[in-house]
Design goal:
Number of helices: 2
Largest sheet: 5 strands, mixed
Strand order of the largest sheet: 1-4-3-2-5
Number of strands: 5
CATH class of the domain at 27-87: Alpha Beta
Structural class: alpha/beta
CATH topology of the domain at 27-87: Signal recognition particle alu RNA binding heterodimer, srp9/1
Helix content: 25-40%
Radius of gyration: 17 Å
């Protein structure tokens, strides 16, 4: 197999892996930090997953009305006191 064909096969395998991850997790909606905080405020019993990102920022994930919402922020978000916060080592969102 040529190196071009091997590269194409690797790219196809990576795309298939990402597609499978999206199917398994459902739709993930990326929003701005302010919009994320508005969604948190509209939830009755919000649970938010947070992880420090490798670039020094923070990633957040929550479910609201059947959809998963994700945001990134350079600074920690000020979450309301009623939020159940789950601190994770990593959040991976397929791109």
């Amino acid at each position: 197999m040529s190196s071009a064909a091997a590269g194409a096969a690797a790219a196809a395998a990576a795309a298939a892996t990402i597609a499978q991850a999206v199917k398994a997790s459902g739709a993930i909606v990326r929003v701005e930090p302010g919009d994320f905080l508005k969604l948190v405020g509209r939830s009755e019993q919000p649970m938010v997953v947070m992880a420090e990102a490798f670039w020094g920022g923070y990633k957040y994930l929550m479910s609201h009305k059947g959809l998963a919402f994700h945001t990134k922020s350079g600074e920690p978000l000020e979450l309301p006191t009623q939020v159940e916060l789950v601190v994770a080592r990593k959040i991976w969102v397929p791109s």
